Amino acid sequence: MQFTAAQIAMLINGQVEGNASATVDSFGKIEEAKSNQLAFLANPKYEEYLYSTKAAVIIVNETQELKEPVSAALIRVPDAYSAFATLLHKYQEIMRQQLSGIQEPSFIHKTAVLGENVFVAAFSYIGEKVQVGNNVKIYPGVFLGDNVKIGENSILLPGVKIYHDCVIGKNVTIHAGTVIGGDGFGFAPQPDGSYKKVPQIGNVVVEDFVEIGSNSCIDRATIGSTIIRSGAKLDNLLQIAHNVEVGNNTVIAAQAGISGSTKVGNNVQIGGQAGIVGHIQIADGTRINAQSGVSKSIKTPNSAVTGSPAFEYTSALRSQAVSRNLPDLEKRVLELEKLVQQLMQERVII
Amino acid sequence: MQFTAAQIAMLINGQVEGNASATVDSFGKIEEAKSNQLAFLANPKYEEYLYSTKAAVIIVNETQELKEPVSAALIRVPDAYSAFATLLHKYQEIMRQQLSGIQEPSFIHKTAVLGENVFVAAFSYIGEKVQVGNNVKIYPGVFLGDNVKIGENSILLPGVKIYHDCVIGKNVTIHAGTVIGGDGFGFAPQPDGSYKKVPQIGNVVVEDFVEIGSNSCIDRATIGSTIIRSGAKLDNLLQIAHNVEVGNNTVIAAQAGISGSTKVGNNVQIGGQAGIVGHIQIADGTRINAQSGVSKSIKTPNSAVTGSPAFEYTSALRSQAVSRNLPDLEKRVLELEKLVQQLMQERVII
Amino acid sequence: MQFTAAQIAMLINGQVEGNASATVDSFGKIEEAKSNQLAFLANPKYEEYLYSTKAAVIIVNETQELKEPVSAALIRVPDAYSAFATLLHKYQEIMRQQLSGIQEPSFIHKTAVLGENVFVAAFSYIGEKVQVGNNVKIYPGVFLGDNVKIGENSILLPGVKIYHDCVIGKNVTIHAGTVIGGDGFGFAPQPDGSYKKVPQIGNVVVEDFVEIGSNSCIDRATIGSTIIRSGAKLDNLLQIAHNVEVGNNTVIAAQAGISGSTKVGNNVQIGGQAGIVGHIQIADGTRINAQSGVSKSIKTPNSAVTGSPAFEYTSALRSQAVSRNLPDLEKRVLELEKLVQQLMQERVII
């Protein structure tokens, strides 16, 4: 899609300076933008690029002074960075609204109910009694098992698989390849050393405004629900086991894993590749460092931990610092042993 | 599907007490069940919910005494928990038997051979000379490469991809998005710093009664087979590299990884996010703690290890305990140094 | 496909000894090959199998002496191992050339441009203005978003998803389930504790001769490009975050993760399950051990690190060695304290 400088200025309430009919069709960094792109200048550090950039349109702060002539059309706004962010949101909204209708071939069970302005791409599969809310966008190769519910404005990127009976809220985005509702990992050991499957008959509930990255796994509960609370943001390649609860506005970075039945509080931050054992509680506002291994409940809100096993952040860092110099510490102990032995031999017993 | 209390009692050899025609269509925990659900009471801790639950039907121990009137229909059995588990298995069996036939559009090569009562969902792809056993259930978007064999009663959930020549046993379940038979990671370094691919011409053999979670990867062997032995249970997001062997009834938790050519024995337990280097052996019955990094063979059966690099469990825990107090230990050494220095200066040489 | 010993000898410039019309249709290890297979003998350790193998054709060194009669047809070449590798490459080339044409049903937007001898399998989705180079092979269930470019000779295995605007070079192989161009994980914290999505409008550029394993994730840049440089080899289940750059001929083992905006140099080796924080630089030739956690830039080329947090390899190993004996070290300190206390009490003040 192409936009003129004048159209963009209207979207973000800015003033055009220069060629109002200059057109752009994509976005670029000011230092590497091409002649069909729009850029912005917010950080004075990059001002030199204002005079050399190939961008056709640039959003600048209204206070921006020009030391040289500028070939691009300028759009002046009170705050260039936030105007640019606003523009991106509006642009993505416009792009998404264009996705609509049912592409063929797709498989939509006759008992499924689809809302208004829904997009169902080719090769998507919508099972029995599925409910899809208004404005939901379903990309190619998505699988929705029987009885799944998808709330309005949600977006399912290519190849997302949602097993039967799971419930997805409104304004949720789930990226490509993520699996919601696979069986929890439950097997009962038998006397002969084999394992018997424990049926996993619960579901997964993902509340509103959640975003989940690519190729993540959120397993269904054994009974009841695995729950991702409203506003949580989950990255790629996550493992969320059965019956876990993730609190509101909690953020989990890529490749982290949470074992079964653990309850993670609100506004928690979990670093990449961190692991949390099962059946524990993580207090609100906890910060868990990348690669940590959390092996017991964290009860004090807003604490920070690191290491595997994980401990309180500051003291763990202190231990790590000593740990690095262990060979030196051992040498000091050896030296002491020699001196003390010498002293023991030389001592005068009174 | 709906069942009456009478029908359920018949399936699990129980006695109905109350309304034998009460109907349910799903399962719930006794403390949160809805009026269309069946629950069970096995743990006396939850007895209070027997009198307040909305569940329409409850399975209880035959010895269960009632302190108050119960509105739900009761089904009395010798052991409520195991009767409930049995019921779930039968229910899932019934549900699965209903899946049958070929949905369109699907792609089935004319040389492929399908057994009796097979289900092939829409958008599934079955390549040349593929053999699919009786009662196999293939969900949407599954890919079976040329010459793949799937044993009877196996279930391939949505988006499972099995590369050419791989062999899957009987009664195997593979969850959504898992990739079986991708190329092993083999590249020969060249004098100019680049890498030349080593062709990966082996396959993967998954034996009977194996279950594999979602979005896991099991790579094909360079030559020969990567093998998952009978009864092994593998969780989500696992990496099993080329030429690995995983023994009978071995259990591997999510996000663990096993490097090339390593042989893991029988009845081994591997915790989440653990890693095992290549070309080593892990003895039968070994227990590897979550996040461990196993860097050499474990030869003693039934041993337990933890840490990265991993060591014997008890002594590793002891080291970790001291490690936590390292700053304190360093302080003690510093104190000793001062005292010894003082003693050295004060000593009386005889 | 079947080949005779004579045909194979011609492909690798060898001399047939025995039945030149013996046929094979696959490859096996000499110790376990079947009667329809070709094997090779390069390592003298395996010579005994030359006389007992069931393989119909065996590639051997031209200097190989026979101590017993051999039933298989032999093909003599100067170097059996490299002739075998050459044969595999030619075989895979032949197999791949056979893949051609458009299978139905597939979805190819009318504005997409496909080169010569392209294969598009059933259930693949090719969006608006996509450009697909000559000889590209697209397996079932692949998704190519709008404006994606795929360079010639590249191979996209089943279920690969490439989001809009991403660019894939020539001779690239991407294995099943991998997601290229999912949104970077960028969310701005709001005063009320919630997060606001930062639009991710960049793309991913994968240069020539790159191979990427199964179920990996490479996120698109916030602005600009996430870049995988020519010749890099990436394993399964990797996380490559937004705006990361991976250098030429860099090798990354399974389950490793690289956080946002980090620049990894050329010829770097990253072990399995290693993690690298965001916004740092890794010098050319760095070797990062498996499970390491790299928390700051590595500026010296060709250095090696291990541990979490990661340090210089040799000194980290030394610290780990002492760490293992910490309980012993603590005991020695305790013993010293007792002796020093005794000495302090017994000392003679002059």
CATH topology (level 3) name of the largest domain in chain A = UDP N-Acetylglucosamine Acyltransferase, domain 1
* CATH architecture annotation of the largest domain in chain A: 3 Solenoid
The CATH top-level class label of the largest domain in chain A: Mainly Beta
The CATH H-level superfamily of the largest domain in chain A is Hexapeptide repeat proteins
Oligomer: homotrimer
Major pleated sheet of chain A: 12 strands, mixed
**Largest beta sheet of chain A: what is the strand line-up?**
8-11-14-17-20-25-28-31-34-37-39-40
Number of helices of chain A: 5
Span between termini of chain A: 98 Å
Given as residue ranges, the uncertain stretches of chain A (5+ residues, pLDDT < 50) are: none
Q: What is the number of independent domains of chain A?
A: 3
Q: What is the radius of gyration of chain A computed over CA atoms, rounded to a whole number of angstroms? A: 28 Å
Biggest interface, chains and residue tallies: B-C, 61 and 66 residues
Task: Describe what is shown at a glance.
Chains A, B, C: Pfam families: Hexapep, LpxD. Chains A, B, C: Belongs to the transferase hexapeptide repeat family. LpxD subfamily. The structure is a homotrimer of 350-residue chains. By secondary structure, chain A is an alpha/beta fold.
